[in-house]
Amino acid sequence: MPIIVNDIDQNTKEWELLRCEIPTSSQFNKIITSKGKRSATYEKYARQKATEIISKEPTKSYSNSYMQKGHEREDESRQLYCFMHDVEIVQIAFWYLDDKKMVGGSPDGLIGKNGIWENKNAEGEIQMERIDNGWKNSEHFVQCQGNMWIGEREWCDLTSYSRGFKPVTKRIYRDEPFIKSLKIEIQLFNEDVQRLVEKYSIKGI
Question: In 3D, which of 34, 20, 53 has the Cα closest to residue 185?
Fold first, then answer.
């Protein structure tokens, strides 16, 4: 059963500390690709997590104006989705896979007992392309599957939002073969991180 943390807000210092030292769903694509293969960024991400464990400090997160806009407009997208689909989205700050707290994630919302909602902000031209030709969202497939695994959920509605434009929502269902590969890679990743910690950290302090 997932362990839900809901007494803080996302994108705060407290939230960053929850993500520190462990792999999180939004970064799972740095471990495994949507095709189930090991990512080219695997080693770099392992070193990042090992550094967090050794230093006890979270990696400084990168943010730009586009990402900030996405955070600011998430509530708009959430409200529109709820209105259009006549559902309620429950927000949480973070969840862990289990009480070991070695894996976690931050879904943008929960729908009923089986659903997750994830939001991605898009510029107008990109939204037009997605409306006309559909959304090739393989870059978010790993994140969605990761949160379905962590939260024991069956589907994820992934929404592309751009202010003033029609939203584009694609439902992604739980992929058991992929999740099986994901579990293996996450376990191996955490083992590799611990080996790095043993190799590089000062002992006895």
Answer: 34
Digit-coded pLDDT (tens) for 125-141: 999 999 999 988 777 99
Residues 6 or more apart from 101 whose CB is under 8 A from it? Answer: 3, 22
Residue (of 114, 128, 127, 93) closest to 157 by Cα position = 114
- DSSP 8-class letter at 24: B
Distance CA 178, CA 32 (A): 10
pLDDT of residue 64: 56
Looking at residue 70, its pLDDT comes to: 59
Q: Residue 169: which residues within 8 A CB-CB, separation 6 or more?
A: 81, 157, 158, 159, 160
How far is it, in rounded angstroms, from Cα 158 to Cα 144?
8
Domains, the chain, with CATH or none = 3-200 (3.90.320.10)
Within 8 A by CB and 6+ apart from 30, the residues are 39, 41, 42, 44, 45
The pLDDT tens digits of the residues spanning 148-178 come to 999 999 999 999 999 999 999 999 999 999 9
Spatial distance between the Cα atoms of 171 and 156, rounded to a whole number of angstroms: 6
